[in-house]
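Appendix B. Worked example

We walk through a single record from start to finish. Start with the input: the chain for YnfA family protein, Defluviicoccus vanus, length 110.
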Amino acid sequence: MRWTLPTYVLAAFAEIGGCFAFWAWLRLEKSPWWLLPGMASLALFAWALTRIDADFAGRAYAAYGGIYILASLVWMWAIEGSRPDRWDMIGAALCVAGAMLILFGRRAGA
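Next comes the structure step. The output line below is what the pipeline stores for this chain.
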């Protein structure tokens, strides 16, 4: 469990980086060569999610969603230069709280 959050963060930034490579190619008119590291990044994302210690893939993916949302806002600020507003931050806080409930909530029979 101690590697769960760092693994989610790795997965989130790998997914965002991979998807951004496609965004850059299609929306920012960058070279198609952007797709090579983008696809490698998406493969890293998929591999990282399989490293999550969870009994069910669906639970791992559900908890990942909250971390992904927070990471997306960090990306928007750090890479794209647009600072999240208060509504972004409130929404992300709610999502991360939900992810923490999914990850660390007491399970029946546990």
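Two observations about the output. The two ends are 15 Å apart (CA to CA). The helical segments are 4-27, 35-50, 57-78, 86-104.
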